[in-house]
Amino acid sequence: MTDRRSHPPKGALWLLRHAYFGKNEALEGDLLERFREKQSAIWIWRQVFIAITLGTLSAFRERWPEVCYAIIGVAIPLAFEKRIYPSGFRFWLVWWRLPWPFSQLVMELSASFLMALAAAPFLAVGLVIAQRFRWTYILRTAGINLTLITLVHYSFDYLSPWITRPVPGYPHQRMIIIPGALQLLAFFLMFFVAAWLGSRGRRHLTQKSGQSA
Amino acid sequence: MRRSHLGELELLILLAVVRLEDNAYGVPISKTLIELTGREVALGSIYAALERLEHKGFVTSSIGEPTPERGGRAKRYFRITQEGLRAIRTTRTALNKLWSRIPLIEGRST
Q: Helix A10-19 vs helix A41-62: angle between axes, to the nearest 10 degrees?
């Protein structure tokens, strides 16, 4: 008979490995040690959720310029969606005169491009205050953000049957069925991840590993 | 500027680290807290507090050898620094002063 103690909950450990901000090897080892002593799988899951929550809060606190960037990145399109979006195309490029596929690309990506760039000045100010400013961080963040927004934009075509439903009375229109709060959270995370990846400097990482040595 | 004062959990963990000497890593720290305070503190909270203490310069950490009973994961040992010892002493002095000015609580049933 296989000893139950030799089978810790793999899902919990996988989650800890992939969703925990920070060094997790020692924590994972401690959880395994306690599990082999007497603790239950439920106890492990609870510990993992607490660790992930605290790790995320700690990362948010440490990365406050990125959090501000994400909040502003979500707020800007919400605040100006109706006023700027339709006029934006005319405002900065006469896209329909361009040859295909450039016209298509500009039409579909101009809003994404504006969204990715609009919050960048706020990230720059935050990084200056936090004494971490680098031009490469801003450019990299904008690039990653544009890529993510574009991926989300085009993935809608494939996910449409599952995440949209027809609008009553308008047979050619569809509306998204994902709750607004979840959409906002997804947008927030997308901006935060872009800024987090974009502003990860080699020096910052070296300092981190140096502290643990 | 780094915050140099200690929170309640941070003080308890620092005292546990001092008490455990060379064996201060997550599991024994957690067991010491249960033994001394009757309170089970999540390992994630202990590590979050230890990270803060390390950032303040009150503890240092080092990675031990991976062991089979931990699935090959290494232990992370913590040691108190001189700054950490100073912070404990300062906190104790402050607490002693505060307690000495509250004599009525001693021996009260409620």
A: 0
